[in-house]
Design goal:
The chain is an alpha/beta fold. The protein folds into 2 domains: 204 residues, Glycogen Phosphorylase B (Rossmann fold), CATH 3.40.50; 175 residues, Glycogen Phosphorylase B (Rossmann fold, 3-Layer(aba) Sandwich), CATH 3.40.50.2000. Helix content is 40%, strand content 16%. It contains 15 helices and 15 strands. A 7-stranded mixed β-sheet has the order 3-4-2-1-5-6-7, sandwiched between helices. A 6-stranded parallel β-sheet has the order 10-9-8-11-13-15, sandwiched between helices. β8, α8 and β9 form a beta-alpha-beta unit. The longest helix is centred in the last third of the chain and has 18 residues. It is globular. The two termini are 28 Å apart.
């Protein structure tokens, strides 16, 4: 089968959850003998490169936009992609709503499957807290408005939609219920061979792998950490971002001293997971967090926030992390509750071991990249063979 992937960035040139999921799925597809091409808007027009595994990268390029008109750059990407994308494929996958919408508007007859790492539509409170109304023209020129419009086109016109969780599916259906018949939830995954055997340190260690961004809610974790009564203890924050200085200041003000370690952005995350006892992700919003899947695959019990409408939309709670089985949930509005959950796990190593074993078993059974890639291929084959639902 000839498979095209429409992408903005290429892993490892750009490191992120979406880039990793595209890289993993396309690698598995190529390993099964399919012809795989990655068309990237990040690479200049005419660029051609072949990876060692046989995947080919082509550049879509992006036409120069005067800085005074930077707001219409996303729209230019859509228009440009419409002109340049090839149609020699049997099926096309895309995680980017702008590129997906551009292909869908072509009506080329080649089915496209929209498979984003999350969603923009239905999550406005987290991604675009303020959408200004400056008249129809100025409003349309806001990148946020263009993103929302592009994803709406995706939901209306693409052949297939693969939300990464039931939570993302609900968010999409809240805006466009007519696309339900073209949806298949396909969770993201992890690569078991990339992880290391556990070797916890003598000090009870909690690890969090996340960008230091407001949506990740790290200040909530630091405030909870102050109330953890177990000692000695160690909290490792793996990741970097705009809130680093603010969070370091908060940690110092709370007198946490050396018990909180800012490890920065790392390329050896498996080593940090393997050396820990518990994994925590305190995010207010998560679509299908790879960090949780990798922590589960390592054999760590996981702590995530309980999903509460309008307060925390965390797909990890319930879909990935199962309360009482693979980990625990905490009240998203009460740092003390999170502190008590951490203290409980610190005091009960036998519970940690039981939950860690269940985490690894669940991850291996349901959430590997190979399993996800097979589901993508089955979805594409169904569309090619004519089992396509009429577009709503």
């Amino acid at each position: 089968m000839r498979i095209g992937w429409l992408v903005r960035h290429i892993f490892q040139k750009t490191i992120g959850g979406v880039e990793r999921h595209i890289d993993a799925h396309s690698r598995w597809m190529r390993s099964w003998g399919h012809e795989v091409e990655l068309w990237s808007s990040e690479y200049p027009k005419g660029c051609r490169e072949e990876l060692p595994d046989g995947r080919k990268i082509f550049g879509l390029g992006l036409r120069p936009v005067p800085s005074s008109l930077w707001r219409i750059a996303p729209l230019c990407r859509v228009i440009d992609a419409v002109q340049r994308l090839p149609d020699r494929f049997d099926a096309v996958f895309s995680a980017d709503h702008l590129l997906t919408a551009s292909w869908a508007l072509r009506n080329s007859g080649v089915p496209i499957i929209y498979c984003p790492g999350g969603t923009v539509i239905g999550t406005t409170q987290w991604h675009f807290p303020v959408l200004r109304d400056d008249g129809w023209l100025r409003s349309f020129l806001q990148p946020a408005r263009q993103y929302l419009l592009a994803e709406k086109i995706c939901l209306q016109r693409v052949a297939g939609i693969a939300p990464v969780s039931e939570a993302v599916k609900r968010q999409m259906l809240s805006v466009h219920p007519g696309c339900a018949g073209r949806m298949r939830v396909i969770h993201l995954g992890y690569e078991p061979d990339d992880l290391l055997p556990r070797h916890p340190s003598p000090v009870f260690t909690v690890v969090c792998v996340a960008r230091l961004h407001p949506i990740k809610n790290i200040d909530f974790l630091i405030r909870a950490w102050r109330q953890v009564t177990f000692s000695p203890k160690r909290l490792v924050l793996v990741g970097d971002g705009e809130e680093r200085i603010k969070l370091q200041t908060l940690s110092a003000e709370l007198g946490l001293g050396g018990s909180v370690e800012f490890a920065g952005e790392r390329h050896d995350v498996p080593r940090w997971l393997a050396g820990s006892d518990v994994f925590i992700l305190p995010s207010r919003y998560e679509a299908c967090p790879l960090a949780v899947l990798e922590a589960m695959g390592t054999g760590l019990p996981c702590l995530t926030l309980r999903s509460v409408a309008g307060i925390s939309d965390v797909a990890a709670s319930g879909e990935l992390n199962v309360e009482g089985e693979t980990g625990l949930f905490a009240d998203p509005e009460d740092p003390r509750d999170l502190a008590e959950q951490i203290t409980y796990l610190a005091d009960h190593p036998e519970v940690r071991d039981r939950m860690g074993w269940a985490s690894r078993h669940r991850a291996l059974t349901h959430f590997t990249w190979e399993q996800a890639a097979r589901k993508y291929m089955q979805f594409a084959e169904d569309l090619i063979q004519g089992r396509r639902i009429r577009i709503a």
